[in-house]
Structures are given as structure tokens and as C-alpha cells.
Design brief:
Radius of gyration: 19 Å
CATH architecture of the largest domain: Up-down Bundle
Structural class: mainly alpha
Strand order of the largest sheet: 1-2
Number of strands: 4
CATH superfamily of the largest domain: GntR ligand-binding domain-like
Number of domains: 2
Helix content: 55-70%
Shape: globular
Largest sheet: 2 strands, antiparallel
């Protein structure tokens, strides 16, 4: 789905101090696309990128005012987000961002593992000049964002890197399937970037994948991708210890049970 178009942000509203609500001032909904779908995407992105952290209230009145919408499409979007365990709706109390559910994150990781391992091999054999240039430009931008410690930008570039590989190896449809399954996992990924040396590690892993693709070496690219995807298990355990308040009560138990099966 196209990103909502931006317009100059308004100033002077006290609610603009909230990073998520502040970001809404720069958005204009596209009349050619259904409002519910756009609102869902806006809030989902806010949750995944931690502008709406676990426990944050969803200010429905302010969101409606900022976007110039009625409550109906917002409520429909919230119901979709609740079905994905991204928000918690309590009648008469309001809606808040749900904690990170580790089992949902690991389910998303299984989808990534199954599909991205396949598409990276296909991408190595289907690589062409257009994708080479796009991936090279993405890697250059990643290095710049990492050096500047611009983690919001680095996360978006990380997403684009994997999207490009999926579209080269398969199609945009496959990427939409992957993206739809990994919202909880993406919250963990975004939470991990500010950790010491984490972004640099991710960048090095991306470079290894990129090198395999540029050499048209499917096994080298796949091995680098597997190393990259498997790192999530270590990241989860570290983040649960550091940010326990962001995770569901069963997070530690689920994470201890999780792991890559032998021979997988």
C-alpha cells in the first residue's frame, strides 16, 4: 500500500509533544484508498517503530482530529490491530498498545525463515542490474544511517533491503505475506537497534547477504541470511532481560523453550 502523502506539520498543539501524534500532522490520507486500511497502516507502523510503545494509550479523539476522520474507520482499524495482538481494547476504559507477545514473534520468525530462505536463493539466480543498483544504494544508505545512529531510518532501510530481495527472488505478493506475519517480531527488531553495536552487527550481516547476491552465489547468500535470521533468538533473550516491561508475562518462559531445532 502506498504511504500516506505528507503535508507540512502544524505547530502549537500541546499534543504534538507525543511523537506518534506529532507524526500525524505531516500526513494526509489518500482519497483513492480506503480510510480504514490507511489508518490501520499508520497505527501499525507507529506500534512497530515504537512511537507507540507497549502500554501507550491510543488517543482516539486526537487521532480523529489530526487525520480529519470519523470514529468508524478508526474503530475498524483498531479491531484489526486487536486481532493481531497489537492493541488491547478494554470496554469503558479505552485502547492501549499491547505488550510484545513472544510466541507471535516466533511464529512470524517461522514465516520469515520459510519464505526468505527460499527467496534469497532465487534472488541470487535472478539478480539483474536494476536490483543490483537498488541494493547497492540501500547498503550505502544503511551505512550512513548506522554511522549517524539514526535508528528510525536504519529500520526502514532494513525493511527495504529485505523487500528488494523478496521482490527480486519472488514478487511483491510474497513480501506482503512476510510483512503481514511479522509485526511482533518487528517490534523486537526495532527495540534492539539502539543496543551497543547491534546496528553495526545487522549491517555486517546485510553486507554478507549482499556479497553473496552480487556473486550470484545462492548458497553463500542463503548461509548469510540464515545467520542473520537466527540472531533474533539471542536478541529476544537480551531484550527481555533489559526491557521486561515491554513484554507479555510469559515472555521468559516462551523464550526459553524457543530455539532452532537441530538440523533445521
Amino acid at each position: 500500500m502506498p504511504r500516506p502523502r505528507k503535508q507540512p506539520a502544524e505547530t502549537g498543539n500541546p499534543a504534538a509533544e507525543d511523537p506518534f501524534l506529532a507524526s500525524l500532522g505531516a500526513l494526509r490520507l489518500d482519497p483513492a484508498i480506503g480510510k480504514t486500511a490507511q489508518i490501520y497502516t499508520i497505527i501499525r507502523n507507529g506500534i512497530v517503530q515504537l512511537k507507540l510503545p507497549p502500554g501507550a494509550a491510543i488517543n482516539e479523539r486526537e487521532i480523529c482530529a489530526r487525520l480529519g476522520i470519523s470514529r468508524t474507520p478508526l474503530r475498524e482499524a483498531i479491531l484489526q490491530l486487536a486481532a493481531e495482538n497489537l492493541v488491547t481494547v478494554v470496554p469503558s476504559s479505552g485502547t492501549s498498545v499491547a505488550p510484545i507477545h513472544i510466541q507471535d514473534a516466533f511464529d512470524g520468525q517461522m514465516v520469515r525463515d520459510a519464505l526468505e530462505m527460499r527467496v534469497v536463493r532465487l534472488a541470487a539466480s535472478r539478480m539483474n542490474l536494476a536490483f543490483e543498483r537498488a541494493l547497492a544504494a540501500n547498503m550505502a544508505a544503511q551505512r550512513k544511517a548506522s554511522a549517524a545512529r539514526d535508528f528510525d531510518e536504519f529500520y526502514l532501510l532494513d525493511e527495504d533491503f529485505h523487500r528488494l530481495i523478496s521482490e527480486c527472488g519472488a514478487s511483491p505478493t510474497v513480501w506482503r505475506i512476510i510483512n503481514g506475519a511479522k509485526a511482533q517480531l518487528d517490534r523486537i527488531r526495532r527495540l534492539g537497534f539502539p543496543r551497543p553495536h547491534h546496528a553495526e552487527t545487522v549491517l555486517a550481516e546485510h553486507q554478507a547477504i549482499f556479497d553473496g547476491l552480487m556473486r550470484r552465489d545462492s548458497e553463500r547468500a542463503a548461509a548469510a541470511m540464515q545467520t542473520h535470521l537466527d540472531r533474533v533468538f539471542e536478541t529476544v533473550r537480551l531484550l527481555i532481560a533489559e526491557r521486561r516491561d515491554y513484554f507479555s508475562p510469559d515472555a521468559g518462559e516462551v523464550a526459553q523453550r524457543a530455539g532452532r531445532p537441530a538440523g533445521a
